[in-house]
Design brief:
Layout: E1 4-17, E2 21-28, E3 32-38, E4 56-63, E5 69-79, H1 87-103, H2 111-126, H3 130-147, E6 174-177, E7 182-184, E8 194-196, H4 198-205, H5 214-217, H6 221-238, H7 246-252
Helix pairs in contact: 1-2, 1-3, 1-7, 2-3, 3-6
């Protein structure tokens, strides 16, 4: 008799397997990333049905196999149907899912990562405008980097470690170094990848807070896209990955 185990997980990736099955990549709280076959799910009238769709959270009973595990039972706890009804929301969700997949581990609990991702998806789904979606999305990128141990240095110069005093005037004069790992003081020599203005740096510094301050939420769409590009470059360099979803962001939110 095959061994079974239970887990709660969110579907992050799926691909056809054979004529009727689908192979799912699932982030679970208890076991991290798992790959499991949803048998017959592509057949009309399958009892698994929508439980195998992306961004669905299920309580799972998994049957362990020699090569691949199989989903024996699935009971849906939450589904983010609203994401698929809005291109901007879906694009942001796919980006966060890819970033999660790049850092999630297998065969060990990933509860905090699971809750960060599902919280961000809930927040993105509940927003009504692009100006509301982007702050939640960019904060999600920052939190995923932070849990991986790669949050950029924003309060001190990443080279000298001196407390960073940002100029309030003069446009985008604040130096940010992806290679160095954060903001760079004017007097320090370092490879500069991006320039920020005071409002953008202030917003970036506040992404670690539980709730964003009202003045941060008023940042322009253009500035939020600047911050996304900064964190994207930072993530790709320090995680040593290329985010395939990035071009979707560029297409969806072209400046």
């Amino acid at each position: 008799m095959a061994k079974t185990y239970r887990a709660t997980g969110i579907n992050l990736k799926g691909m056809p397997l054979g004529e009727q099955d689908r192979l799912l990549t699932i982030l679970t709280k208890e076991r991290g990333l798992i790959r499991a076959v949803a048998s017959g799910v592509r057949k009309y009238g399958s009892k698994l049905g929508g439980r195998a769709e992306l961004f669905v959270v299920n309580d799972l009973l998994i049957s362990q196999g020699r090569n691949l595990d199989r989903i024996a039972q699935a009971e849906t706890r939450e589904s983010f149907l609203g994401l698929g009804q809005n291109l901007a929301k879906l694009t942001c969700a796919q980006y966060l899912a890819e970033l999660t997949l790049r850092q999630a581990l297998s065969n060990q609990p990933q509860e905090e990562l699971f809750y960060i991702l599902t919280d961000r998806l809930q927040q993105i789904q509940s927003q009504s405008s692009l100006g509301q979606i982007l702050p939640v999305f960019v904060q999600g990128i920052y939190r995923l980097l932070a849990i991986a141990g790669f949050a950029p240095q924003l309060q001190r110069c990443c080279i000298s470690q001196q407390v960073f005093a940002a100029p309030r005037e003069g446009g985008r004069r604040i130096k940010f170094s992806v290679i160095g790992g954060g903001v760079v003081s004017d007097r320090v020599e370092a490879p500069v990848s991006h320039y920020l203005n005071y409002q953008e740096l202030n917003s970036l510094q506040q992404l670690a807070a539980a709730d964003l301050a009202p003045e941060v939420l008023l940042l322009s769409i253009e500035s939020w896209l600047v911050l996304e590009r900064v964190l994207r470059a930072y993530a790709q360099y320090h995680l040593e990955v290329k985010l395939q979803s990035a071009h979707l962001i560029d297409s969806c939110f072209s400046l």
